[in-house]
């Protein structure tokens, strides 16, 4: 197993991380070294991205690259940074090797939904700020609709990765839930994680850059909620292509850097989805959009 670490200038760190998310979907280990921020990814020889591809992405921000064989404890180190998270006291998202909330909580852990995600080869353990922001907005929207006596209804998860958002939506009572991703490993992970959590989620391969407007498997069904934790270029593509069938009543867009929000909000406004809320965590931001 190789640990490949990129040390970058702190001022460029968030931008670099945004680029690395696509290159290393299962996660990046981050260490603040003072004068540089180190991002490390793990993989077998031949599986890691090539140096020229990293240089092309990271460019001038790169200060140093360190590649090292890791000792037998690599699996423990890898696991250590997939931390469980508690979202709004409602959802506990954890990897399978961490105990359920009911076992670690001091109070009433049974009121919290347990969501187990095996990151496998797909992005999305819940711990990343982009996923977390989506989960927060999803829980709040769920509560608002319930309080208003509205049906929850279908969900379309664009770029489902591990399926963490799709599984959470299904656990919260939305349905039917359908995930799409261009990676076969993500589709498999979405289905496996849904089964592991005992919820019904369908998933299919779909390339948002090539396959045109997206749709629920039943485009004649009711309006869906769309979850889209994607980077800016893909969100702009989704806004440009629009949707087949009933347009979403809400869309949660994440994977954005704070300064990218205005442009993405404007692109969705052109197809009738207006900004209802904006939320950030560090340099990452998410938008809740609703049909005008
Ligand atoms: C930031 S991850 C989000 C994963 C998960 N939904 C979450 O919130 O943690 C983005 C996902 O989009 C997928 N993706 C990237 N390019 C895509 C494309 N052209 N079409 C469909 N999915 C794509 C990636 O494979 C990845 O699973």
UniProtKB/TrEMBL annotation:
InterPro entries: Ribosomal_L11_MeTrfase_PrmA, SAM-dependent_MTases_sf. The keyword Methyltransferase applies. Keywords: Methyltransferase, Transferase. The keyword Methyltransferase applies. One of its GO terms (biological process) is methylation. One of its GO terms (molecular function) is protein methyltransferase activity. SUPFAM superfamilies: S-adenosyl-L-methionine-dependent methyltransferases. This is Unannotated protein. It comes from freshwater metagenome.
């Amino acid at each position: 197993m190789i640990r490949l670490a990129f040390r970058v200038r702190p001022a460029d760190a968030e931008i670099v991380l945004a680029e690395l998310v696509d290159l290393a979907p299962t996660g990046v280990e981050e260490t603040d070294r003072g004068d540089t921020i180190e991002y490390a990814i793990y993989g077998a020889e031949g599986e890691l991205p090539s140096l020229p591809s990293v240089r092309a992405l990271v460019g001038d921000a790169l200060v140093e690259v360190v590649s090292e064989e890791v000792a037998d404890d690599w699996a423990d180190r890898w696991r250590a940074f997939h931390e469980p998270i508690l979202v709004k006291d409602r959802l506990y998202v954890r990897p399978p090797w961490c105990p359920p909330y009911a076992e670690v909580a001091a109070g009433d852990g049974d009121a919290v939904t347990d969501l187990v995600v095996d990151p496998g080869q797909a992005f999305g353990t819940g711990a990343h700020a982009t996923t977390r922001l989506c989960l927060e907005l999803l829980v709040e929207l769920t509560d608002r609709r319930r309080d208003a006596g509205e049906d929850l209804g279908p969900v379309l998860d664009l770029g489902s990765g591990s399926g963490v958002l799709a599984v959470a939506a299904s656990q919260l009572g939305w349905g039917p839930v359908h995930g799409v991703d261009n990676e076969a490993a993500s589709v498999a992970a979405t289905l496996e994680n849904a089964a592991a959590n005992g919820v019904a989620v369908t998933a299919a391969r779909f390339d948002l850059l090539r396959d045109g407007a997206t749709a629920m498997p039943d485009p004649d069904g009711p309006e869906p909620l769309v979850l889209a934790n994607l980077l800016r270029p893909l969100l702009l593509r989704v806004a440009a292509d629009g949707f087949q069938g009933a347009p979403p009543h809400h869309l949660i867009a994440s994977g954005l850097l704070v300064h990218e929000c205005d442009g993405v909000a404007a692109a969705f406004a052109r197809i009738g989805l207006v900004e209802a809320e904006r939320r950030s965590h560090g340099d990452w931001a998410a938008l809740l959009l609703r049909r005008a």
